[in-house]
Fold these 4 entries.
Entry 1:
Amino acid sequence: MSNNSPFCTCKDTKCPLHPTNHDKGCSLCIAKNLQSREIPSCFFNLADPDMKRQGYTFEDFVKLFK
C-alpha cells in the first residue's frame, strides 16, 4: 500500500499503524497515541531525530526542551 502521509518520519514500518501498512494515513497512529496519553514518534523525531527514548509520554517529550 502507498504511504498516504509522505511527511511521516516514523522508521518503524513493521508497526501495523504505520501509514504504509493501510490507507488511513496517520489517523490510526494518532488515535492510539491519544488513547495512551502519548506523543507520536514523528514529534520526537522532529525535536531530536537521534535521541534515545525512554518513552513517548507527554512528560518524556517535555524533557527534550528543559
Entry 2:
Amino acid sequence: MVPRTTPPSTWMQGLDFPSRIFGESGGSDYELYEEDGEFVLTVDMPGFEREEIDLAWDDGILNVAAEHVDDDRGRKKTYHRRFRFPKVVDEDEIEARYTNGVLEVALPTAGTAAQGKPIEIQG
C-alpha cells in the first residue's frame, strides 16, 4: 500500500456545529453544552470590547462576529463563527454577557427537535 502524501480534505474545517464538541481533537475557542433546558455557549474573545461584538439570531443560526482595529499598530483583528442548533431555541429569551474576554450566550430550548423533514432510511 502506498502511503498517503496529500493532506486530508479540509472542506469541513469552517463548519461549526454543536456536534463538534463530541470529540474533535485540538484547540477550540468555544465550548457549547446543553444543561437545564438551555444551550450555553462560551467563546474566548480576548482583545475585543463589548461594543465591537455583534451577535445575531437568524432562523436557527447564531452568528457571532467581531472586529477590532488597533490604529497604533496598524492591525485589524476579526472573529466570525456561525452555530446551528439541533433543537428549537426560544429566540425571545436568548441572553448574552461579555466579561473578561469571554462571551457567554444562554439559549433556552423549546424542548423539541429542530424543524425539518424526516428522511426514511432504506435497508
Entry 3:
Amino acid sequence: MNTKLDNNEFEIDILHLLKVLWKKAWIIILCTILLGAITLSYAYFFVTPQYQAKAMMYVNNSSFSVGSSSFSISTSELTAAKGLLDTYVIILKSRTTLEKVIEEADLDYTYEYLSGMVTASSVNSTEVFQIVATSSDPGEAELIVDTIVKVLPDRIADIVDGSSVRLVDHAVLPTHRSSPSYTKYTMIGLIIGFLLSCGVIVLIDLMDTTIRDEDYLYQRYSIPVLAVVPDAYETKRSSYGYYYKQKDAAEKTEK
C-alpha cells in the first residue's frame, strides 16, 4: 500500500501495484493487442510502400589532383580510402550531377527532391561504394540508379584526374518493398499499448482515495482504528446481517 511520510510524500508499494496490474491483466492485454492492430492497419492502409534499387561501383586511382595539388595513392593505401570515397559521394550528390540525371532520365523532380531519394556510401570501408535510390515506384528507382551509373563516371573523370570507375553490380527491378516494416509498426503499437495501459491503471490506483478497510486507513493516513461499525446487512451466518436477513424473510412469508 501507499504509506504517508512526514514530508507529505507517499511511498509506493511495488507489490501492491503489481497485484493491481495482475488483476487488470485482461485490460492490459486488450489494449496491447488493440494498439498493435491500429499501428499495423495504419502501416498497411496509409503508409506508401517504398522500393529501393541498388548498384555498386569500384573506384581505383593511381593518382589524382584537386586544383593545383597532386596526390599519389597506391593500391595498399586505398584501405584508408573513405575520404576519397566521400569525395565521390559529394560529386554524386552535387547539383550539376543530379540535374544531369534528371535530364537524362526525364524526371519531373527538383534537385532537392531527387537528392533526398538518393544515397551513396562505402561498402565495408573498401573501394566499392553502393548507390541506392528509393521511390514508391520500383521502376523509377531502377531508372534513377541506372542513370546515375551512366552519368557519374564522366563527372568524376572531369573533376578528379586519373580516376577509374567501374560497374560492379548493376541495378535490378526491386520486387519487395523496403518500407514500411509491418513487424516494426506492430511491435511499436504493442509496446505503446502495454506501457500506456499499465501507466493509466497505476495512475488511477495512486489517485484512488477510497477507504477499503481498517488496514488501508492506518497504512495510508497513519490513523489508528478505535472501533468498527459492523455492516447490518452483511449476509454471512455469523454476522448481524444474517439475523436481519432471516427476520425480513420471515415477515414477508407471514404477509
Entry 4:
Amino acid sequence: MPLRICMILPEYDGFGGGIMTFYRHLAPALVRAGAEVTVIEGSGYASAPEQAQRLIEGVQVEVLNSARVASWVERFGDLTSVPTLRRNLAAAWASWEQAQVHGPFDVVEATDFGLLMVPPILEAKIPVVMQMHGSIGQIHSYDPNTGEELAGLMALAIETEVARAATMIQTHSRANRNYWARATGRHDIELLLPAWAPSTAVELTSPDVRQVISVFGRIQMWKGPKVLSEALEQIPNCPDVHWYGRDLIDSETGLGSTKAELRKLYPTIWENRIITHAPVPPEAVQALQASSLLNLVPSTWDVFNFTVAEAMASGRPVICSDRAGAAELIEDGVTGFVYDGSSARALATALQRAAQRDPRDLTRIGIAAKERILSTLQPDKIAIERLNAYKAAINSKVAVGEVPDWLRQLATPKGVTGSNYRFLEKLPLRPLIDHILVRTARKLGVS
C-alpha cells in the first residue's frame, strides 16, 4: 500500500515564496517515489470559494475554502481583540476540517507558519510532522510589526508549546534546528535538506556578464536592506545592486512601505545604487542570476532561503549572509562567499573581496557551486530520505509532551459566535476617539 500523506500548507500553486518552492519540489518527488500526496493550500489570508481538487504533477491539490474559514472565524469571537491570531487559528481549523474529508491518511505534515499544525497536533488522531519553515512568532522576534506585538508573542507561545507535542519536528538548517531545540527542550529534531532543482536548464556561464549585483527577495527589514545600504555607503565604487521583489508594509511603523522608509533613511542609495524591480517569474530569475557579476543574499535572518540555491545553480557566484540557513551549503571562497550577516562592514568587505577576484576565478566558483547544489538537493534522493522520516514518525514510540490546559483554551474555539468588542470598555475614551479620527482621515486620504 502506498503511504498516504496529507500536507497542510499556506501556499503551493502559483507565484509564492520559500514554502511554495519547498513543496513544489518535494511533493511531486514523493509521488514519483510511490506515495499518495494530498495538499490543502491556504491560510488566514489566502483562501478561495469552493474549488474542485486538481492534479498537479501527480499531487492532489485543493484550495482552502473561504466560506469554511469565515465559519471558523465566527467561532473564535473571544479573540476579537487579537484579530490576526483569530484569523490564523480559524484558518488552521478550517484547513484541518477540509483535509479530513479526503482521509484517512497515514501521516500529516503541517507547517509552523500560519499555525497550521495546531489542530492536527491538538486532536492527535494520526502522526503529525511539524515542518519548521519560519514561524509567525519567529518572524515577529526578528522583525516586530508595530500593532501586532501581542499577536506575535501569543503565536510564539503557541508554536513552542505545540512543538513539544508533535510526533516529529523537521527543519532544513542547523541554525533553525538549534533554535527550536533550545525553545522546546527537544533534542530529536530532524535536520533534512530540502528537495530542489532548477525549473529549466541553466547555462554554466552567461555569454554576457552584466556588471551588476542581483538580489531576489521581498523588500522587508529582515531581508537585509539596511545592512546592504550601510555597506554600500562604505564602498562607493561597488557595482550597482538590482533588487527584485515585492515591497511590504514597513514593520517599524505598521504603515506605508518599507521601500519608502529606506529612501528616507538612505536617500543616496535607494533608487540610485540599489535599483528596485517588481518580482519576476522563476525562469526570469534564473536568466538574471546567470548573467549577473555576483548574486547577493543579505538576510539578517532566514531559515533557509532558496535564492541561495537558485544563485548557486546559476553558474555565477553568490555572496551570502551567514544568517541565511542555506549558507551552510557554501564553502567560503570555493563555492561562494559567506560573511557575518549582522555587520555592514563585513558585507562591504565581502563585496570588495568578490568583485576584485579574477573573472576566471569567479567562473570557477560559479561552476563549483552549481555542481554542489544540484547533487546535494536532488529531489528524488531527498524524497527517499523524507519517506523514511515519515515512516519513522508513524512507528515512533517517543513520548511527546502533554498539551497544557492554557493552550487548549486559547487555541480551540469556545462556541462564541460573532465578535466581542467588550474589551474596548477597558480603554480610555479619549485615545479611542483620537484613533478613530486619525484612522478615518487616513482611509479618506486626507491624513
